[in-house]
Design goal:
alpha/beta, 11 helices, about 15% strand
Length: about 270
């Protein structure tokens, strides 16, 4: 299955995570060739940029797992703008009894993705729904059921206005705190150490130019907390890239302080 340049770039960076099992079978069925030129361009800016994606994906998978393990009943997982993310397979392999179903949403590629699931992991495919929809303009309230839900917002916050992101999160507000939200986002340059600002600036400029994208939305942790509170939820924790790297590697190599990174993740209750 051929991916567009941006999706192929992210999957190429994340490939060290997919070192075996059914997740690797799925990854091996993807064609990443459209991302090769963009990857080379980004490597010229920062040859270790893949560490950012590895840290981010590791943390999100870990937070989802913690929510599942701590829930009194099985959960539904909803992933807007899922793209070719393998999170659904990771979760179903590790926590099969803790998940009712997984709903992946995106504006394109969903039929093809589910066909790939049926080919590679037929025993899990029936537990994953791949729905074609534009998450920026569609209400997601219909995907919040009676069971606890975990809303995973990874990568897509860059492309949404504040009101669009807030509406997405509000769709899962139960008023009882039974649902969880995990949202990853890009910080403004003022939060990044001066000596590091050129890395995200040049990498994201390369991505925008290659894919014809508008400037990305950015949030401070306080700003993201405000989005979640305005949607009726509360914030449990913020994670800097330094915290993500520590969680994955046990120590800090590339991100020794919060200001060394430009990607954050916030966890909350809805």
């Amino acid at each position: 299955m051929e991916l567009n340049a941006t999706a192929a770039l992210v999957m190429a960076w994340a490939s060290p995570l997919y070192d075996g099992g059914r997740v690797r079978d799925f990854f091996d069925a993807l064609n990443l060739s459209k991302g090769e030129a963009l990857l080379r361009r980004c490597d010229e800016t920062c040859p270790w940029y893949g560490e950012v994606i590895l840290n981010r994906k590791h943390l999100i998978s870990r937070l989802v797992g913690r929510e599942l393990a701590g829930s009194p009943e099985p959960c539904r997982i909803v992933i807007p703008a899922a793209g070719m993310s393998t999170l659904a397979l990771e979760v179903l392999e590790q926590y099969p009894e803790c998940v009712t179903d997984i709903i992946e949403l995106d504006v394109s590629g969903m039929a093809e993705k589910h066909a790939l699931y049926e080919e590679v992991v037929p025993e899990l495919a029936e537990r994953i729904a791949c729905v074609r929809t534009d998450v920026a303009i569609s209400s997601l309230a219909c995907y919040a059921g009676e069971e606890p839900a975990i809303l995973v917002i990874e990568g897509v916050s860059y492309y949404l206005r504040r009101d669009e992101l807030g509406g997405m999160i509000a769709s899962f507000c139960s008023g009882k705190g039974k649902n969880a939200v995990i949202v990853e986002y890009l910080a403004p340059c003022q939060m990044v150490a001066a000596g590091r600002r050129s890395i995200p600036r040049n990498v994201f400029r390369s991505i925008r130019e290659a894919c014809g994208l508008a400037p990305f939305s950015v949030y401070t942790p306080g700003g993201m907390a405000s989005v979640i509170r305005d949607a009726g939820g509360r914030v449990d924790a913020h994670y800097s890239m330094a915290a993500m790297e520590r969680a994955r590697c046990g120590e800090n190599h590339f991100f020794r302080s919060d200001e060394d990174g430009w990607i954050w993740c916030t966890e909350g209750r809805l």
